[in-house]
UniProtKB/TrEMBL annotation:
<feature type="domain" description="RING-type">
    <location>
        <begin position="69"/>
        <end position="117"/>
    </location>
</feature>
<dbReference type="Pfam" id="PF13445">
    <property type="entry name" value="zf-RING_UBOX"/>
</dbReference>
<keyword id="KW-0863">Zinc-finger</keyword>
<feature type="domain" description="Lon N-terminal">
    <location>
        <begin position="318"/>
        <end position="542"/>
    </location>
</feature>
<dbReference type="InterPro" id="IPR027370">
    <property type="entry name" value="Znf-RING_euk"/>
</dbReference>
<protein>
    <recommendedName>
        <fullName>ATP-dependent protease</fullName>
    </recommendedName>
</protein>
<dbReference type="InterPro" id="IPR013083">
    <property type="entry name" value="Znf_RING/FYVE/PHD"/>
</dbReference>
<keyword id="KW-0472">Membrane</keyword>
<feature type="transmembrane region" description="Helical">
    <location>
        <begin position="555"/>
        <end position="578"/>
    </location>
</feature>
<dbReference type="GO" id="GO:0008270">
    <property type="term" value="F:zinc ion binding"/>
</dbReference>
<keyword id="KW-0479">Metal-binding</keyword>
<feature type="transmembrane region" description="Helical">
    <location>
        <begin position="590"/>
        <end position="608"/>
    </location>
</feature>
<dbReference type="Pfam" id="PF02190">
    <property type="entry name" value="LON_substr_bdg"/>
</dbReference>
<keyword id="KW-0812">Transmembrane</keyword>
<keyword id="KW-1133">Transmembrane helix</keyword>
<feature type="region of interest" description="Disordered">
    <location>
        <begin position="1"/>
        <end position="52"/>
    </location>
</feature>
<dbReference type="InterPro" id="IPR017907">
    <property type="entry name" value="Znf_RING_CS"/>
</dbReference>
Length: 611
């Protein structure tokens, strides 16, 4: 069944406007427009048809091997897709064990794990929660079974009773006009019985004296097989055969580029609408090796024709977006802008008109180049946040009040200038997979951190403990009515996030921390590292007597009010002295005392604020 998904952003409920063809090439943020564009490409590509080469034994062996389990040598039964990209039968999973020193993510089904049995994985540990039933491969196996079953061959007037069995007995010669069908059937049957080792070459079928090219009857059988498999290899986003197939946590498979594009708008599976688990980084994670092998065998054009297929993946992986160099912001955090410069007014209007409603936000570079930026030369930082316009209020004089929400982080690859504002080619920045996050936590809790960074003192704490301490700090500050977490602030930025991955971004937005320190949080791809950076801030605040600093900070902010009160008192005293005594000397003394008091208050506030 074909499903026509229409992924929508989670940040708004109104439908997006359609983007033009040029905008689809320039931007990668069009939701349903991207689906329509790629569907057209699929319909206009008749050359992308499955091919089959039954005359090559090596080709047939690779095809059968793609359907075999490496562990039991049988055809895959209830195939499970592993995070490393390999596949095995559900019954072939190694013995499970309890995973220790892991607290994030705090899910009960992640406590059970096993050691990957495949050599290429080098003994890596997988959580059972990260292994999903490969729905696409299951459908492929079912289709192959239907076509190659005895009953199917009998219906097509092929007498399978004349085929020799795999057991002992007299071998009947196979007619030359049925030799190729027999080779396929023979290899499939012994693989199904588990008597064909995974690493062995193609078995020599008994009973075949010689064979020539495939007959018309054989070609028809192979065409029936390919016709049944055709729909199983169609991505349900672009309706083209899979290009770098990637299996999600729910078991559905999509092109890697299509899945990246969908995730720009939503974290839901385009097929079943279940939440996608971030256990695997789509950009750098492993693709489905079995489906990749099958696609390369049945659709060699996809690998060869880089102009029509692979280039689309490059367009998606490197987006071109407008850049607003203003301030630092973070994903899932709102930001409010007052735009009045003509160049950025033009940028905003274009973002609204092309339907994306998105632009990149970066901060001005503070002095020296941050280490994370490397050799990037620009008046702004290399890392930023994609913002989505949730509300827009425009004034007659051209000014705009804009409400935005951070969607995801990005890294600038290159940039140019257009009409006074930057246009940048970017790539999305995602956190490391859950497996790497868990391995980092376990290693640090057992062996400690091997770095000299300020975060080393918190390496013995679990990730969940780091988050809990930060959460408790916020609660204590609210109990003491600290202005950083006042009700009006929380009404704007929301309550503390329950997700440890977002919590450091929220803290970096509200705490009065140096911009260079906040930038470390923005570029970090580890939830644990971000939480440790927040703990460093909290510890520094405790050591520097933040309460005194906060009180003086409030006094400094209220100097105009204090000065106004003192001026009122001064006028009242001067007026009283003039009316009663007409004593000029007394008025001068009051003036001197007033000026001295004002100077003392300002000097004391400035001096104490520097401690």
């Amino acid at each position: 069944m074909n499903v026509y998904p229409n992924p929508e952003p989670q940040l708004h409920s109104e439908p997006e406007k359609g983007a033009s063809d040029s905008n689809l090439q320039r931007n990668s943020l069009g939701g349903s427009d991207f689906v329509t564009e790629k569907k057209t490409l699929a319909n206009s590509s008749p050359k992308l048809r499955p091919t089959f080469n039954p005359e090559s034994e090596s080709y047939l062996r690779e095809l059968i091997r793609s359907l075999q389990c490496k562990i039991c040598n049988q055809l895959l039964r209830q195939p499970l897709a592993l995070p490393c990209g390999d596949t095995l039968c559900r019954t072939c999973i190694p013995r499970l064990h309890e995973r220790r020193y892991i607290s994030y993510p705090s899910q009960s089904d992640r406590k059970q794990g096993f050691t990957c049995p495949f050599e290429g994985c080098h003994g890596q540990e997988h959580s059972i929660a990260d292994c999903s039933l490969d729905i696409t491969l299951t459908n492929v196996l079912t289709s192959v079974e239907i076509v190659l079953s005895d009953s199917a061959f009998s219906q097509d007037s092929v007498d399978t009773s004349s085929f020799p069995s795999s057991g002992p007995g007299k071998v009947q010669p196979i007619p030359p006009d049925k030799a190729h069908i027999y080779k396929v059937f023979w290899a499939y049957r012994i693989a199904k019985d588990g008597t064909l080792p995974f690493t062995s070459d193609f078995p020599t079928p008994p009973g075949i004296e010689h064979s020539e090219g495939a007959t018309e009857q054989e070609k028809q059988h192979f065409a029936n097989l390919l016709a049944r498999l055709r729909s199983d290899f169609d991505c349900q986003v672009c309706y083209c055969p899979y290009n770098s197939p990637t299996t999600t946590s729910c078991g559905h498979t999509f092109c890697k580029a299509c899945l990246e594009r969908v995730r720009d708008h939503s974290n839901l599976c385009p097929f079943c609408r279940k939440t996608l688990s971030p256990y695997r980084n789509i950009s750098t994670g492993c693709g489905n090796k079995r489906l990749t092998s099958l696609v390369s065998l049945l659709y060699p054009q996809i690998t060869a024709d880089k102009d029509t297929q692979a280039s689309e993946g490059e367009i998606v992986s490197e987006q071109t977006i407008p850049i607003f160099a203003c301030a630092m912001t973070f994903p899932q955090i709102p930001m409010f802008l007052h735009i009045f410069e003509p160049r950025y007014r033009l940028m905003l209007r274009r973002a609204i008109e092309d339907g994306t409603r998105c632009f990149g936000m970066v901060a001005h570079r503070p002095g020296s180049v941050p280490p994370a930026d490397g050799d990037f030369v620009a008046p702004f930082t290399r890392y930023g946040t994609m913002l989505y316009v949730t509300n827009l209020q425009m004034f007659p004089d051209g000014r705009s009040l804009v409400e935005t929400m951070g969607i995801y982080r990005f890294k600038i690859i290159s940039y140019s200038w257009q009409d006074g504002y930057p246009l940048a080619n970017i790539e999305r920045v995602e956190d490391i997979p859950y497996a790497d996050e868990e391995a980092m936590e376990a290693s640090e809790r057992i062996n400690g951190s091997d770095t000299d960074s300020p975060t080393q003192m918190f390496s013995h704490l679990s990730t969940q403990e780091l988050y809990q301490r930060g959460f408790e700090f916020v609660a204590s500050m609210r109990n003491e009515s600290v202005g950083w977490f006042a009700d009006r602030i929380l009404n704007t930025y929301g309550q503390p996030p329950q997700d440890p991955a977002i919590f450091p971004f929220w803290m970096a937005t509200l705490l009065p921390v140096n911009e260079r320190e906040k930038y470390l949080v923005l570029v970090s791809t580890s939830v644990r590292e971000r939480l440790k950076l927040v703990m460093v801030w909290i510890k520094a605040m405790d050591q520097k007597s933040w309460r005194t600093r906060y009180i003086l900070h409030r006094i400094l902010n209220r100097i105009p009010t204090i000065a106004l009160v003192l001026i009122t008192i001064y006028i009242f005293l001067i007026k009283g002295a003039t009316n009663e005594d007409q004593d000029t000397q007394k008025s001068d003394e009051i003036s001197h005392y007033f000026i001295a008091t004002i100077i003392a208050v300002i000097a004391a506030a400035i001096a104490f604020s520097r401690f």
